[in-house]
Amino acid sequence: MPETVLVTGATGFIGSALCKALVTQGHRVRALHRHTSPLDLLRGVRVEHAIGDILQPDTLRQALQGVDWVFHAAAVAAYWRQRPETVLQAAVEGTGNIVEAARAAGVRRVVLTSSLAAMGLPRHGELLDERHTYDLPPNHFIYGYAKYQAELAALRLAERGPELVITNPSIVLGPGDVHQISGSLVVEAARGRAFLYTEGGVNIVHIDDVVAGHIAAARRGRPGERYILGGENLTHRQLFTILTQVVGRRPPWLKLPTWTIGPLASAVDLLRTLVPMPLNGDQLRLSRYHLYCDTSKAERELALPKPRPFRAAAEEAYAWYRQQGVL
């Protein structure tokens, strides 16, 4: 019999995509969101709407009644637009509330959406894997620190149940990123702003592969384990070259020398106090590193196929933004 599933963060990028896939697969899906949350991404999706807030435990009890699985995807994803304490509270306190409420309701399994950011920085020439842990000062990358602390809190609380499986997506791209988190890469490229690049690189994963990884984690993941959900490892130059090809713009031509990144990051932090910007200084400082990852554990234990190419994610995101009238 199909499981009854609760998805937190159901109106966001990952959460809404999860809802759609789970409904398609025959699950009874309950979407947790605040009463003020925009429902555009759930339009036409047959879900039960549960009004609640992960920071208000009293609102979670009814939402969790009769639930078998919880996908906890709620988070402050646009962390650079928020105060650090807000990011940390949502990650740690919110996750703790979900795990405790799930245990009280008799939920069998919780899949926690963490992030590759929770694994810190790799050594030179090394790939991040599930053994890595956050290794930067908290104020150097609050999102990664908050995600790692959320993992620790969830694992500690889940010792008495429910089963907890952690997924660690890299940078997620594809259609549906309404808040332009990673999708800002596509939007900025389409507006002709992808002309410069730095020495480092990142891993980018298609939203469909992230959704498939979450569902596989619920079905096959080992309790207490982390699973990296990643796609292609790309240098920034490769990434922006592909993006500019997709959106029909000139390829990146200006490389920022590594020694300029520190001063520029400080300038970005100053400018952000005056005008909106698509990144903060911490992101720019991290751009000098090759944040590549090894996805073999998830492919092996969760029986996942090889991930989709970055170009496919970029093309679909670009088409979606054009359809939405953003571009």
Characterization of this structure:
With 327 residues, the protein is of the alpha/beta class. It has a domain at 4-172 and 204-230: Rossmann fold (3-Layer(aba) Sandwich). Helix content is 39%, strand content 16%. It has 11 helices and 12 strands. It has helices at 13-24, 61-64, 84-105, 142-157, 184-190, 207-220, 236-247, 258-272, 281-286, 296-301, 310-323, and strands at residues 4-8, 28-33, 48-51, 69-72, 109-113, 163-169, 171-173, 196-197, 201-206, 226-229, 232-235, 254-255. The strands form 3 sheets. The chain has a 7-stranded parallel beta sheet with strand order 3-2-1-4-5-6-10, sandwiched between helices. A 3-stranded mixed beta sheet has the order 7-9-11. Strands 8-12 form a two-stranded parallel sheet. Helix 1 (13-24) links the parallel strand 1 and strand 2. Helix 1 crosses helix 6, helix 3 (84-105) packs parallel to helix 4 (142-157) and helix 7 packs across helix 11 (310-323). The mean pLDDT is 93.
Which key terms come to mind for this protein?
327 residues, alpha/beta, Rossmann fold, seven-stranded parallel β-sheet, three-stranded mixed β-sheet, 11 helices, 39% helix, globular
Give the structure's gist in a few sentences.
With 327 residues, this protein is an alpha/beta fold. The chain has helices at 13-24, 61-64, 84-105, 142-157, 184-190, 207-220, 236-247, 258-272, 281-286, 296-301, 310-323, and strands at 4-8, 28-33, 48-51, 69-72, 109-113, 163-169, 171-173, 196-197, 201-206, 226-229, 232-235, 254-255.
Strand segment count: 12
Query: What oligomeric state is this?
Result: single chain
Strand fraction equals: 15-25%
Which word captures the global form? globular
Strand order of the largest sheet: 3-2-1-4-5-6-10
Main sheet? 7 strands, parallel
Number of helices, where a helix is a run of at least 4 consecutive DSSP H or I residues: 11
What letter string, H or E per element, gives the SSE order?
EHEEHEHEHEEHEEHEEHEHHHH
CATH topology of the domain at 4-172 and 204-230: Rossmann fold
